[in-house]
Amino acid sequence: CRLRPHAPRGIERLAAAPGELSVAALLDLGARRLGAPAEGLSVLGRAFTSDGRCGSCGAGAAGLRLAPPPGARCRRCGGLRRPPGFGLREGLSPAELSACRRRSLASLGVRAGDVAGVWAYGGAAWLELAGGAA
């Protein structure tokens, strides 16, 4: 497809694992590749949520992180972890990024092998996180 959002992505593999990079470091890497300030962050195939609690028993914590993958189970009650749909979003805005710049990518739920998109005006840099400490 020739539409811009459907264009093939050039994905660059990083040597660092999610536990080794902060949000700020990833944004800086992306901004250098794009030649423009980073304005957003996303993870391919995953959504962010601000409510990580179990819908059945309430275990877990509220706070910004990636939503659990489909089929994930609660450690406390064994129920399916399903974040509320109204709290899901594809990426983080500049305000949300500002609040979590010091956090590690792992603390947001980013896993080894995930592909993060750093967005700037006019494009995105796609960066795959290495294996190892997640």
What class do helices, strands and sheet pairing give?
alpha+beta
Q: How would you describe the shape?
A: elongated
* Overall mean confidence score, pLDDT: 85
Major beta sheet summary: 5 strands, mixed
Segments where pLDDT lies below 50 for 5+ residues? none
Considering DSSP H and I runs of 4 or more, what fraction of the residues is helical? 10-25%
Q: Walk across the major sheet and give the strand order.
A: 1-7-6-2-5
What is the string of helix and strand elements? EHEEEEHEE
* SS summary, helix count: 2
Oligomer: single chain
Question: If you compute it from the alpha carbons, what radius of gyration comes out, rounded to the nearest whole angstrom?
Answer: 15 Å
Gap between N and C termini: 34 Å
As a percent range, the share of strand residues is: 15-25%
DSSP, total strands: 7
Protein architecture, described:
The protein is of the alpha+beta class and 134 residues long. Helices cover 14% and strands 22% of the residues. The protein has two helices and seven strands.
Structure characteristics:
7 strands, two-stranded antiparallel ribbon, alpha+beta, single chain, 22% strand, elongated
Summed up:
By secondary structure, the protein is α+β, with helices and mostly antiparallel strands. The protein has two helices and seven strands; from the N terminus they run E-H-E-E-E-E-H-E-E.
Any chance you could write out the topology, listing elements then pairs?
Blueprint: E1 11-13, H1 23-34, E2 40-43, E3 48-51, E4 62-66, E5 91-92, H2 94-100, E6 115-120, E7 123-128
Parallel strand pairs: 1-7
Antiparallel strand pairs: 2-5, 2-6, 3-4, 6-7
